[in-house]
Q: What sequence folds into this?
């Protein structure tokens, strides 16, 4: 099993190539010239204070926002290099339902709260051609177990679940189609510390077992250290530091990164 301090860059071909992404709402607000490559099975953490541009960048990468400048290329399962902003909106939606997943900070943004837990998982399978009720239900039960939810809750709606359970259900919904790339926006935000720890442990195991590539946005350096191979530090829309996670956190070079790390240590 791969440890977070290692990086799978021996994979020669990037899964995602990000070139010069720029989307500014005002000077220093948004994203201003971000470049990086992401490799299969690699977890990239993006950290920075509120307003640093992390979430805007994630929106551009996942296709929910179109940048003013820049390009994103994704190499799909068929080994075709897709230009994210030059494919159709419907093709982007297909990517999000099949090879990609998005785990939102607030589970209600990634779940249908009025339908059952099983339907939340089954809907995503149906989007890729699943039709057999018995198989959909079996997959739902299996994935509830995977994310540590009792399968007897399969007919219950997410409204009846705790915040931690809703987040785990959202993860199951995303992973059921066997995606290759997951975008996570503050996946442990707003949860109690004990619930966070359990969710992080679950995420770490699932991501490693499935060999997923992940772009993780978080303000929590402890979350970034536990999950990420590489770290990108953002300030006012720009990347101010980028490197292996342990190197960045243990020996920060940029004054802003030093401030972030020292503020955590000082708490």
A:
């Amino acid at each position: 099993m791969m440890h977070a301090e290692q990086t799978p860059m021996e994979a020669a071909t990037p899964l995602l190539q990000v070139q010069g992404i720029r989307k500014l709402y005002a000077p220093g607000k948004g994203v201003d010239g971000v470049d990086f490559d992401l490799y299969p099975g690699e977890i990239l953490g993006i950290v920075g204070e509120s307003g640093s541009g992390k979430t805007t960048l994630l929106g551009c990468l996942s296709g929910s926002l179109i940048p003013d400048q820049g390009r994103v290329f994704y190499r799909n399962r068929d080994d075709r290099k897709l230009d994210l902003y030059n494919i159709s909106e419907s093709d982007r939606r297909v990517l999000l339902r099949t090879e990609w997943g998005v785990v939102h900070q607030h589970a209600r943004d990634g779940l249908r709260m009025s339908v059952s837990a099983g339907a939340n998982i089954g809907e995503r399978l149906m989007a890729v051609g699943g039709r057999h009720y018995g198989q959909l239900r079996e997959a739902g039960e299996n994935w509830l177990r995977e994310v540590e939810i009792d399968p007897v809750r399969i007919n219950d709606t997410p409204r009846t679940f705790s915040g931690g359970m809703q987040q785990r259900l959202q993860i199951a919904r995303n992973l059921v189609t066997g995606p290759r790339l997951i975008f996570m926006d503050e996946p442990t935000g707003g949860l109690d510390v004990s619930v966070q720890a359990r969710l992080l442990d679950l995420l770490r195991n699932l991501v490693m077992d499935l060999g997923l590539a992940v772009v993780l946005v978080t303000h929590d350096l402890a979350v970034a250290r536990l999950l990420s191979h590489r770290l990108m530090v953002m300030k006012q829309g720009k990347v101010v530091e980028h490197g292996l996670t342990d190197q960045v956190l243990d020996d920060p070079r940029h004054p802003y990164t030093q401030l972030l790390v020292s503020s955590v240590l000082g708490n």
User: Anything to note?
Assistant: The first strand starts at residue 16 and ends at 26. Residues 1-99+179-267 form a domain with the Rossmann fold fold (CATH 3.40.50.300). Strands lie at 16-26, 29-38, 43-47, 69-75, 81-83, 100-103, 181-185, 213-217, 230-235, 238-244.
